[in-house]
User: Which sequence fits this backbone?
């Protein structure tokens, strides 16, 4: 019986979370792939006759497995610049990563004096059906990860500047406290409140830099903290109203 | 020059990978680990396990291959993959297509006397 250390399990869980993200929109069943990978890793462990699986051991196995879903990403999203030359047979390929589903098309397009590739025979499966069942073509349709759009001016004004100003004004003048209720009764309320402009600011920065990994990893935690602050403030407001 | 060759091989490999999977399964039913190790061992294909499992899943979702789980006395349960009827059809088409392409390319190569 092979035993897994806690850190090994954590490492594997981290990897699986990443794989699940990578497989979004790839056309593959993420749960199935994770089960397959788990089974594969178990086979690797059994083949290596390991009695205990450590974090390093997991890393070694995972490095052999390699990045998941790399094939369809590079197949579907990288651009091929083909010089439209009316069939003189020259391709100006700068980033010559091409989808597998496009190679029959490429052969026909760039043919020139080169014999063209044959169409699939009529009797088997028609072209449309072939296209619909072609795994990589369907990936292209659904598997592309949308590029990160830069943040809009409105987002920066209302998400970063305005909340910062509001907190600043309240801290200096205590306007809301005097008229209505204290929105920042403790240091912790203040800390959670400033997470709103901070998380939005980081989001804006990540969007501006095109850092999708930043967007996915930490932002939901910050957003969750901001939500906690709102909930906490609402609760203190409710308590205050109850006491009066 | 090296970049051009690398990019070209990437394109060729991507198209071939699916065909290799279908051909490997056309021979006989194989379980995942065995299939993956077979394909990983093909020189020049340069594929990793990480790229194969999503591809296998996609092929299954699209009905080109089927899978079934079977308990194994040697370790974890094994998932056996086999070609479906549509998969056989597609594999035949793809192989015919590859043969035609290869023949055309070979004719040009002979005419050009590259080697």
Assistant:
């Amino acid at each position: 019986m092979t035993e897994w250390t806690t850190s090994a399990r954590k490492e594997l869980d981290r990897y699986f979370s990443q794989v699940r993200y990578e497989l979004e929109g790839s056309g593959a069943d993420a749960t199935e792939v994770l089960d397959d990978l788990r089974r594969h890793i178990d086979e690797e462990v059994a083949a290596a006759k390991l009695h205990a699986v450590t974090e390093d051991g997991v890393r070694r196995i995972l490095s052999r497995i390699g990045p998941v879903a790399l094939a369809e990403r590079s197949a579907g999203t990288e651009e091929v610049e083909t010089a439209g030359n009316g069939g003189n047979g020259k391709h100006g390929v700068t980033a010559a990563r091409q989808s597998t589903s496009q190679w029959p098309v490429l052969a026909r397009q760039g043919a020139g004096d080169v014999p063209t590739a044959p169409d699939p025979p009529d009797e088997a499966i028609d072209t449309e059906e072939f296209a619909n069942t072609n795994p990589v073509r369907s990936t292209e349709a659904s598997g592309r990860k949308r590029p990160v759009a830069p943040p809009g001016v409105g987002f920066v004004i209302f998400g970063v500047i305005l909340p910062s100003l509001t907190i600043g004004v309240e801290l200096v003048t205590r306007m809301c406290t005097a008229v209505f209720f204290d929105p920042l009764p403790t240091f912790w309320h203040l800390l959670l409140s400033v997470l709103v402009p901070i998380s939005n600011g980081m989001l804006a920065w990540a969007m501006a830099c095109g850092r999708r990994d930043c967007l996915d990893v930490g932002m939901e935690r910050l957003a969750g903290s901001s939500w906690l602050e709102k909930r906490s403030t609402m609760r203190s407001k409710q308590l205050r109203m109850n006491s009066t | 020059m090296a970049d051009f060759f690398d990019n070209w091989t990437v394109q060729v490999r991507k198209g071939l990978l699916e065909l290799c999977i279908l051909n490997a399964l056309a021979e006989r039913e194989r379980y995942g680990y065995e299939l993956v190790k077979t394909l990983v061992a093909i020189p020049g294909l340069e594929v990793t396990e990480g790229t194969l499992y999503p591809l296998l899943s996609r092929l299954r979702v699209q009905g080109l291959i089927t899978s079934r789980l079977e308990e194994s006395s040697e370790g974890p349960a094994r998932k056996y993959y086999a070609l479906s009827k549509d998969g056989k059809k597609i594999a035949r088409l793809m192989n015919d297509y590859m043969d035609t392409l290869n023949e055309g390319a070979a004719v040009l190569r002979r005419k050009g006397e590259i080697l």
